Amino acid sequence: MNKEDARKLGRNLRSSLSNGERAFEEEAVLSQLKEICRDVEVIGCYVSVKDELDTRRFIAWCLEEKKTVAVPKVEGGTLGFYRIESFEDLVPAPFSILEPKNGAGKINLSSIGMMIVPALAIDCEGNRVGYGRGYYDSVLSAGMDAVGIIFRGQLVDRIDADPWDVKLSRVITG
């Protein structure tokens, strides 16, 4: 499947889910995330927006567990990751995304033990498509454990990958 078709499929699937389906799958993903990151001290995680699979409950759990949570901030053509200690450390940025306030502690990518990655679609080999700007590919090349989280219908057989695309370590679905 070409990337544009995969993006379209992922967007359509997310917007078509009922509240019940969404809640069921998000609970299943949250449960799996908690299990696989119990021993991870520093977690990179996007803050979900709109109809993305919700990460806020996972971030709240990580903070309760005293894990270091690093969230992305767009910096030129890449992402910087900054420690947050609560949702109060976030401010609105372009595209309704929440980013860390200026002055928050920047986290070195090499210290992130697991990165939770957004996606519109992921294939069975760990290839993903996001919104097409390449921000996550620019940081995943650092080699951390990259975990894509999606709704079941966003898992596809094959996505045409480019040489610069970085595969995910694993995929979690509802």
Strand order of the largest sheet: 6-3-2-1-7-10-12
Radius of gyration: 15 Å
Question: Which range does the strand content fall in?
Answer: 25-35%
Distance between the termini: 22 Å
Largest sheet: 7 strands, mixed
The structure class reads alpha/beta
Question: pLDDT below 50 for ≥5 consecutive residues: which ranges?
Answer: none
The mean pLDDT is 94
Classify the helix fraction into a percent range.
Answer: 25-40%
Count of helical stretches: 4
* Principal-axes shape call: globular
Order of helices and strands: HHEHEEEEEEEEHEEE
Short summary of the structure?
By secondary structure, this protein is α/β, with parallel strands linked by helices.
Kindly describe this structure.
It is a single chain. With 174 residues, the protein is α/β, with parallel strands linked by helices. It contains four helices and twelve strands; from the N terminus they run ααβαββββββββαβββ. The protein has a seven-stranded mixed beta sheet. A three-stranded mixed beta sheet has the order 9-8-11, with helices on one face. The two termini are 22 Å apart. The model has no long low-confidence stretch (mean pLDDT 94).
From the structure above, extract its key features.
27% helix, 174 residues, globular, 3-stranded mixed sheet, 7-stranded mixed sheet, 12 strands
